[in-house]
Design brief:
Elements lengths: L5 E5 L2 H10 L6 E9 L11 E4 L14 E3 L2 E9 L2 E8 L7 E2 L9 E5 L3 E7 L1 E2 L16 E10 L4 E8 L15 E4 L18 H10 L6 E5 L5 H4 L13 H19 L9 E6 L1 H12 L6 E5 L9 H8 L6 E7 L4 H17 L3 E7 L6 H16 L12
Parallel strand pairs: 1-18, 2-9, 13-14, 13-15, 15-16, 16-17, 17-18
Antiparallel strand pairs: 2-5, 3-6, 4-5, 6-8, 7-10, 11-12, 12-14
Helix pairs in contact: 1-7, 2-8, 6-7
Length: 397
């Protein structure tokens, strides 16, 4: 391991060691769940399902129907590992998911399973009991849309592309050139109106950071499409089919980046070209660093879905020696020990085999959502744009 090039921030190091070891433990447990619906007189003929990270979040899997006895619904889920599990109740579709009794969205239920457990929940209401709440545009004045249908020749598709230009960019006498960050799932980056589960707030975050003296940056957001799981995965994965990640990364490197460099005042070298995303977007950001090391010099790998990438270790082994620059790895411990262990394994591997500077964060209080990624974006940005990184930090809770 090239210790001099590694920076770790681990907010629960002792717990991480336990979780990482759990993945090889043979013990399995049974989770019994009971739920009662407050407004039980409505939708009485509908089935209630449970959807979570134990069944790939399928909202209507017939194997996960709750059994009704009187006004109580129950289900028993066997053969679960010791890990973190999240779930919600639905009536067979995400448009009919549970909400609070006031109609507000709720966080996923969460359990850290370490023994046979019986849990009880109250379902306040269902999403379709209430009219859709109006969503407002929140993108700042520094955000605009380059094209609602930017052509992707490698995939023969079009996509909406956003751009954030920092304060002062448009001033007539400003000849300055700027680093560029490319972010996936662009619909979630700047604007709550277009986001599915909340936005990152990158524009507001950068407005604040730049006002406090941090160096400026252009940010380009690329919306995902209906084949997101294919576009953001370079590998075949049984659930989603053939990966299209190589074509998507080629689009970024060979089509979109040249367009941005031509039409905006950018710093074109790899040290000023950043790529970032979460979940599947974290996976494809890491892959882009490996496969285009002369294009992308920095990456933000948030909650990477390495579980969908069976060839990621082999690709790391073969390409790591060509990789340098900076890679920021982030995972919330409440996303699950298996996912934490996957990310830690990949981070350790690229650290051993490359000259990359690596910052690894395990947040013991965070989940897999935009709120967590928004929370850590500022730290990622400051570290990415800064200079002094040759140190290790290990913090216990």
């Amino acid at each position: 391991m090239k210790i001099q090039n590694r920076l770790y921030v681990n907010f629960c190091f002792a717990a991480l060691l336990v979780i990482t070891g759990i993945t090889t433990h043979a013990q399995v447990y049974t989770l019994s769940i009971r739920a009662k619906v407050i407004r039980s007189y409505e939708h009485t003929n509908d089935s209630i399902f449970i959807a979570g990270n134990f069944n790939e979040w399928n909202p209507g899997n017939p194997e996960y129907i709750l059994i009704k006895t009187g006004d109580v619904y129950s289900i028993t889920i066997p053969n679960l590992k010791e890990d973190v599990y999240q779930f919600k109740f639905t009536r067979g579709d995400w448009s009919k998911a549970e909400v609070s009794y006031t109609g507000d969205m709720i966080e996923n239920h969460l359990v850290k399973l370490s023994s046979d457990s019986t849990l009880e929940y109250t379902i306040g209401a269902w999403q379709d009991d209430y009219p859709a709440k109006e969503k407002l545009h929140t993108a700042s004045a520094h955000v605009s849309i380059i094209d609602t249908a930017f052509f992707m020749p490698q995939l023969n598709r079009t996509r909406r592309v956003w751009i954030y230009l920092p304060e002062g960019y448009a001033k007539a006498k400003n000849k300055k050139r700027y680093p560029v960050m490319y972010m996936h799932d662009g619909q979630n980056v700047f604007d709550n109106y277009t986001s599915g589960y909340g936005e990152w707030g990158v524009d507001e975050c950068l407005d604040t950071l730049l006002a406090n003296g941090e160096p400026p940056c252009i940010v380009v957001g690329i919306d995902c499409g209906p084949k997101r799981f294919n576009e953001y995965n370079p590998f075949y994965f049984e659930k989603f089919g053939e990966g299209e990640g190589d074509k998507y990364v080629a689009f970024l490197a060979n089509t979109l980046k040249p367009f941005i460099d031509k039409h905006y005042r950018t710093l074109k070298d790899k040290d000023n070209t950043i790529i970032a995303g979460s979940s599947m977007g974290g996976l494809i950001s890491y892959y882009a660093m490996l496969t285009y090391p002369n294009v992308f010099g920095k990456a933000g790998v948030f909650s990477p879905a390495f579980w969908t990438a069976p060839g990621i270790d082999q690709v790391t082994d073969s390409l790591a020696s060509k990789t340098n620059g900076k890679i920021f790895f982030y995972m919330g411990e409440l996303e699950g020990g298996t996912y934490v262990a996957d990310m830690q394994r990949v981070a350790d591997n690229i650290g051993r085999r490359s000259d990359a500077i690596i910052y690894t964060v395990i947040d013991p209080l965070s989940r897999h959502n935009e709120q967590a990624w928004r929370k850590w974006f500022a730290e990622f940005y400051r570290w990415t744009m800064g200079e002094n990184f040759n140190k290790q930090v290990k913090l216990e809770k």
